[in-house]
Design brief:
- The chain contains 12 helices and 8 strands.
- The strands form 2 sheets. It has a 6-stranded parallel β-sheet with strand order 3-2-1-6-7-8, with helices on both faces. A two-stranded antiparallel sheet has the order 4-5.
- About 40% of the residues are buried.
- It is an alpha/beta fold and about 260 residues long.
- Helices cover about 55% and strands about 10% of the residues.
- The chain binds ligand PTJ.
- The site of ligand PTJ has 24 residues, from helix 2 and helix 4.
Length: about 260
């Protein structure tokens, strides 16, 4: 890790970036993960680097969906493994779900490293190293999935997913929860629940919500899902960007020369 002082105004963002760089150096994150992180940072800047009200509502729906699921699975790629490994393991334990390493730029070596990384954080059940099924409609490497894991899941939590695979999972009849800072991406528009938030904020929020809602009546959880409208959430997420930009405009105006 580089020696950025905690007093630096962009400390949190720079530390997140460092974790992705470290993930690449350790062979956990793909090089393309750096580009994805840069894109995410840009969108995060536009929403004001905070959990918006729309994201908080999506996180609540995601917690309800995970708690109601019969066979939930948490999918982990190279970026999630670098940024939130402990939180993914903690969430999996709280809802009694397995994890599955499911990467876009697949190499068997990276799958193994991510699985070992998750086990070092206490993960008990990690699928993905021995795939035995294929997601229909995807090419060979990207279709790989595991029976008892993603292939048989009713709800898949899959942060930072590729649009094609997200569509393929939905076509299989699964409910898909994603975390994606770009509210316009195909993944964001295809998922059942889209959390437009940084994964480093979304995971701690989800863990708290699952803890809070664990004892709730099933009917109350189902009520949250019935009232949830993902298209409206995406629309509100875009509006939050516009509002944030409009608010940020005046100081820039003052800086411009007379
Ligand atoms: O480890 P692999 O091989 O599975 O590869 C993972 C990446 C993320 C590289 C791969 O799936 C990919 O290329 O993804 P995309 O198509 O670049 O999409 C990533 C999406 O995640 C973009 O819409 C980004 O805005 C968003 N994103 C990036 N960083 C974050 C994020 N969303 C939430 N939190 C972040 N930290």
């Amino acid at each position: 890790m580089s020696d950025v002082p905690p007093s630096h105004p962009r400390y949190a963002s720079l530390m997140t970036r460092e974790k992705v760089v470290e993930g690449v150096e350790r062979g956990i994150t793909g090089r393309n993960g750096l580009i994805a992180q840069g894109r995410g940072e840009a969108f995060d800047y536009l929403i004001g680097e905070r959990t918006t009200a729309a994201a908080a509502e999506a996180e609540r729906a995601a917690a309800a969906m995970l708690l109601l699921a019969e066979r939930p699975v948490l999918s982990v790629n190279g970026n999630a493994a670098a940024l939130v490994p402990g939180e993914m393991v903690s969430l999996a334990k709280r809802i009694g779900a397995p994890l599955e390493v499911n990467i876009f730029y697949r190499t068997e070596e990276r799958v193994r490293r991510i699985a070992d990384h998750l086990r070092s954080f206490g993960a008990e059940e990690v699928f993905g190293e021995e795939p035995d099924a294929a997601i229909p409609g995807l090419d060979h490497a990207r279709a790989k999935a595991t029976r008892g894991g993603i292939f048989d899941a009713d709800v898949v939590f899959v942060p930072l997913e590729d649009g094609d695979r997200c569509e393929a999972l939905v076509r299989m009849g699964k409910r898909v929860i994603t975390v994606d800072l770009n509210p316009l991406s195909r993944t964001a528009r295809t998922s059942t629940v889209t959390i437009v938030d940084n994964v480093v904020r979304a995971l701690p929020n989800l863990i708290s919500l699952v803890e809070e809602m664990a004892g709730w009546d099933g009917a109350d959880l189902a009520g949250i899902l019935e009232a949830y409208d993902n298209t409206a959430i995406l629309r509100r997420s875009v509006e939050e960007v516009i509002t944030h930009l409009a608010r940020s405009f005046s100081p820039l105006d003052e800086l411009s020369p007379p």
